[in-house]
Design goal:
Blueprint lengths: L10 H69 L2 H8 L6 H15 L3 E5 L5 E3 L15 H7 L4 E7 L1 H7 L1 H7 L1 E2 L13 E2 L2 E11 L5 E10 L4 H11 L11 E7 L2 E5 L16 H9 L4 E7 L2 E11 L5 E10 L1 H51 L15 H93 L7 H25 L9 E3 L1 H11 L1 H7 L1 E7 L5 E3 L1 H17 L5 E12 L2 E10 L7 H4 L18 H11 L3 E6 L5 E8 L5
Parallel strand pairs: 14-16
Antiparallel strand pairs: 1-2, 1-7, 3-6, 4-5, 6-7, 8-9, 8-12, 10-11, 11-12, 13-15, 16-17, 17-19, 18-19
Helix pairs in contact: 1-7, 1-9, 5-6, 10-11, 12-14, 14-16
């Protein structure tokens, strides 16, 4: 009789208790872990979505501010232009018809909805669409009052239907927006919105002697301005920025009414005339809060961001909204939860099977030993455990223990192989994630750099535009003075020539500003530049700074080669390096200037110019960022563009600029200039 045939039935209870003991923790821990993971994942996804819509709202508001500022800048530039001054002072331009025609032309050019020229008595000197007697409310706006005080301002204001009709009947027609029934919106007794949300500005117009002679006012109505809202939406939600199925939307509200939006109703019609939900209206318009949460938009739920818009009196008159459809995110969340549930179900099933098989393997040798001993007790002398030659029970236990150990060793090896495979997979996935993170950081850095460069271009172009206008006025008046004085101008001719030289210098500075805003249009002409002459000219220009700072000069000029570049631009680079070196030596020091040949592989390439100071040096952590735009190295009066611009100019001519420094031993900047540019 075999040992397995003699197994007592009462041992089944022991097996069940052991299985229950193994499976009970598994059945408790895994569900608790599942619930915790699901709740944490859902909360984390919600926080990510709220953070995203908050960032989107910030981008949208920034674009709205830039558009508003652009309208004000255009009006201010036109008010200060010599063209308007000539129009008002010339005999032919003083006619109302001529001023009217000129204003209509400028309105079309600037894409404004109205452009008025007001006199000191609040009557229209010139107008595009309004009668001479303007609406009484028009002259009471804060932008008009500020312009009379000599200040140019731009604000968002709500124009009544009467004021819009007085300005242009077509504007009143555009502002008329029938109110559509909207789910979850607060009741409104009105049937239509007749007001207009206007971005308008005003700027003073001064005569040649500085007297206020007029006020130029203009604006753009945002009601129905689909081009603006579609551009804003494209900037916030470019193609591919949202998952498949989601839609990015943007809206301008007048009060709680959508006056410009890309939110769609049925059949693709824009939801203009619908209203925001009561909850959002109360939070944003009544309490002045920024809404970042889910909200019901027209006919579906969106992850939404709402921000109040203030008028010139500080009152909340509208809202700016951006958001995206949250249905795909909710579907993805549901799919992820279902996947996790399925995964945990499979894991529990596999764990249960593994536990049963493991328990069977554990009990089999014990049951065989117990059956053998039971058979022997009942007189079955031929009962055997199996494959054991010794009838001694201790020997039989030893052999079974040996086999159990062998089994455990095999299982341990299998687990080790599983662990190694798992470690390899984890390492591979970690490397992929690290590479993806590095690519993301690189992309983010490039985006930030592009935004900084775009800001530099906009800033320099704006500064150049603002400076050119008064320069033209100064130059024109100076030439007129020479003509009027004739031969009497001889005693003051040196002063007049000095003024003209300074005007020319300012024009060169403006040209440089435009050069960095549009470098492709201002590439300098090439000429051979002697390093010795260049250094001497630059030292002469910064001589007052050297004397003031008690700076000594050492020169080691050992090259007779010339560099092929633009002399003015190279002089700008050298002056920037010299000024930086002087600034790091406030208590005096020594400035060493060297020039030498630049050869590689026994081939003449060009020349090197080095500027070395005896200052405190540059910490290693700062060296890698010196040539980044807007990095000032803790200089309170620096703008962070000097070294960046210098590198830009040198690299334009196939050169480069390098820096070396040791803390406490000064710094050395080296220009590597080619004798001939690469083709």
């Amino acid at each position: 009789m075999s040992a397995t045939e003699a197994q007592p039935t009462q041992h089944a209870s022991i097996r069940r208790r052991l299985l229950a003991l193994a499976l009970l923790p598994l059945g408790i821990v895994l569900p608790v872990l599942l619930v915790t993971l699901a709740q944490w994942g859902s909360s984390y996804l919600d926080r990510l979505l709220v953070a995203k819509v908050g960032a989107d709202l910030g981008v949208a508001h920034g674009y709205f501010e830039r558009v508003s500022a652009g309208i004000g800048t255009a009006i201010e530039g036109l008010a200060a232009s010599s063209r308007l001054n000539r129009q008002l002072t010339s005999p032919s331009g003083k006619a109302p018809e001529a001023i009217q025609a000129w204003l209509r032309k400028e309105q079309a050019r600037l894409k404004l909805d109205f452009l008025h020229l007001l006199g000191p008595d609040d009557c229209a000197i010139g107008y595009t669409t309004a009668p001479r007697e303007l609406h009484p409310c028009f002259a009471d706006w804060p932008v008009i009052r500020n312009a009379r005080k000599g200040l140019a301002t731009t604000e968002n204001d709500v124009f009544s239907s009467d004021l819009l009709f007085a300005i242009d009947p077509r504007l009143a027609g555009r502002a008329h927006t029938p109110l559509l029934p909207t789910l979850n919106a607060a009741p409104d007794p009105r049937h239509a919105e007749e007001r207009g949300l206007m971005v308008h500005g005003a700027a003073p117009v001064f005569s040649a002697d500085g007297q206020l002679i007029a006020v130029l006012a203009g604006g753009v109505m945002l009601n129905g301005n689909l081009e603006f809202i579609d551009r804003l939406n494209q900037i916030v939600y470019p193609d591919g920025s949202l998952p498949a199925g989601s839609v990015g939307t943007a809206t301008l509200f007048l009060g709680d009414v959508r006056v410009a939006t890309n939110v769609r109703l049925f059949e693709g019609e824009r939801a203009i005339g619908t209203r925001v939900s009561r909850a959002v209206r109360d939070a944003v318009l009544h309490e002045g809060k920024t809404w970042l949460d889910r909200a019901f938009v027209v006919q579906d739920w969106y992850l939404s961001g709402y921000r109040p818009l203030l008028d010139s009196h500080g009152d909340r008159v509208g809202m700016l909204y951006v958001g995206f459809l949250d249905k795909p995110y909710m579907a993805a969340r549901k799919s992820a939860l279902n996947g996790i549930l399925a995964l945990f179900g499979v894991a529990m099933l596999l764990a249960a099977i593994f536990a049963v098989l493991w328990a069977r393997k554990v009990f089999r040798p014990i049951e065989r030993m117990h059956a053998t001993m039971h058979a022997v007790e009942h007189g079955q002398a031929d009962a055997r455990v199996g494959n054991v030659n010794s009838r001694d029970e201790i020997g039989e236990l030893a052999r079974h223990l040996d086999r159990l150990l062998e089994r455990q060793q095999a299982q341990a090896a299998s687990l080790q192989r599983w662990g190694e495979a798992l470690d390899s997979e984890v390492a591979r996935r970690t490397a992929e994630l690290q590479q993806a993170l590095a690519d993301l950081r690189t992309t983010q850095g490039k985006l930030v750099m592009n935004e900084k460069l775009a800001a530099i271009g906009q800033l320099t172009a704006g500064i150049a535009h603002e400076i050119n206008n008064p320069i033209a006025v100064i130059q024109g008046n100076l030439e007129m003075a020479r003509e009027l004085l004739g031969s009497d101008s001889a005693p003051v001719e040196p002063e007049l020539r000095l003024i003209m030289d300074q005007v020319h210098r300012i024009r060169l500075i403006v040209t440089k500003l435009l050069q960095f805003s549009r470098p492709q249009d201002y590439v300098g002409y090439l000429e051979p530049v002697s390093p010795t002459q260049l250094i001497q000219d630059c030292l002469l220009l910064v001589g007052h700074l050297l004397k003031k700072g008690n700076i000594g000069i050492e020169q080691q000029l050992n090259t007779a080669r010339t560099a092929s570049c633009n002399k003015t631009e190279l002089q700008q680079v050298m002056i920037n390096l010299l000024v930086n070196a002087i600034q790091v030596m406030p208590d005096g020091g020594t400035l060493t200037l060297t020039s030498e040949d630049w050869d590689e592989a026994d081939m003449p390439i060009g020349l090197r110019i080095s500027v070395r100071d005896s200052g405190p040096g540059i910490p290693p952590a700062m060296l890698a960022r010196l040539f980044e735009p807007f990095y000032t190295a803790h200089k309170p009066d620096g703008h962070g563009l000097g070294l960046w611009v210098s590198r830009f100019l040198v690299e334009r001519y196939d050169g480069r600029i390098t820096v070396s420094s040791e803390p406490g031993h000064g710094a050395c900047f080296t220009l590597w200039l080619r004798c001939e540019l690469l083709s």
